């Protein structure tokens, strides 16, 4: 299921959401400009490498110019391909503006990055000895979705289901769309606990545990940071 839009207008201009989308696009254009060998080196440097993160937590140097803990942030702006980027940015475009509207710009940015870090740590927990880089904004965006489902459960989501040459649309409440998405990620996460890593993440290249973890942490952090408050106008600097 792919979201197209929500029936949920905002009261502020979501500058941070726009900025995050722009940053991800620019980072991807930089990736696309690199030759294959240089790209592999760059991704190994800036993405989360679980085994190196494990060693760094144990106080063992991994001899990288970028501290491994910093990759918990930098990895959030990297993507493995155009469709990976496009899908993530679409979800961020649809759901991010309303969460930013309620949290305010600064708290929303803090919330987004924190969800991304915690999502990566969730994925790391289940693949601590993997040498394959993990990257993407999916965990942070899952956090946005976790906050959205609790703040706007009944908002109508317009979506589409790609079925070959057919693209039927549907309208469902947010709790159904996002709840189904979360259950899917959690189910696949459990199913891939024993699966070998593949192109940077578990189970066929998708970091299901990062998605599920980000969603849960977003649902927790959102209310803590004021998701249910109407003070976003005073805190939107």
UniProtKB/TrEMBL annotation:
Domain Peptidase S54 rhomboid: 68-225
A molecular function GO annotation: peptidase activity
InterPro entries the record matches: Peptidase_S54_rhomboid_dom (IPR022764), Rhomboid-like_sf (IPR035952), Rhomboid_protease_S54 (IPR050925)
Cellular compartments annotated: Membrane
Residues spanning the membrane: 12-30, 77-96, 108-126, 132-150, 157-183, 206-228
Domain of life (superkingdom): Bacteria
Bilayer disposition of the protein: Multi-pass membrane protein
Signal sequence region: none
GO biological process terms held by the UniProt record: proteolysis
Keyword tags: Hydrolase, Membrane, Protease, Transmembrane, Transmembrane helix
Pfam families: Rhomboid (PF01694)
Annotated family: Belongs to the peptidase S54 family.
Protein name: Rhomboid family intramembrane serine protease
Protein species of origin: Anabaena lutea FACHB-196
Lineage: Bacteria, Bacillati, Cyanobacteriota, Cyanophyceae, Nostocales
């Amino acid at each position: 299921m792919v979201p197209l839009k929500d029936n949920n207008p905002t009261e502020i201009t979501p500058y941070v959401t726009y900025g995050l989308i722009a940053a991800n696009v620019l980072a991807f254009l930089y990736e696309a400009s690199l030759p294959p060998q240089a790209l592999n080196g760059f991704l190994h440097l800036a993405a989360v490498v679980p085994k190196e993160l494990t060693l760094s937590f144990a106080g063992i140097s991994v001899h990288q110019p970028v501290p491994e803990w910093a990759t918990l942030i930098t990895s959030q702006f990297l993507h493995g391909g155009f469709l990976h980027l496009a899908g993530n940015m679409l979800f961020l475009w649809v759901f991010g503006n309303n969460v930013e509207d309620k949290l305010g710009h600064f708290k929303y940015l803090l919330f987004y990055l924190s969800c991304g870090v915690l999502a990566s740590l969730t994925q790391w927990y289940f693949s601590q000895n993997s040498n394959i880089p993990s990257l993407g904004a999916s965990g942070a965006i899952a956090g946005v979705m976790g906050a959205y489902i609790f703040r706007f459960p009944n908002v109508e989501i317009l979506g589409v289901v790609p079925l070959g040459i057919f693209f039927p649309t549907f309208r469902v409440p947010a709790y159904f769309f996002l709840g189904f998405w979360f259950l899917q990620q959690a189910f696949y996460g459990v199913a891939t606990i024993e699966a070998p890593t593949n192109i940077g993440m578990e189970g066929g290249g998708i970091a299901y545990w990062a998605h599920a973890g980000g969603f849960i942490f977003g649902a927790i952090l959102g209310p803590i940071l004021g998701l249910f408050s109407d003070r976003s106008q005073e805190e939107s600097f």
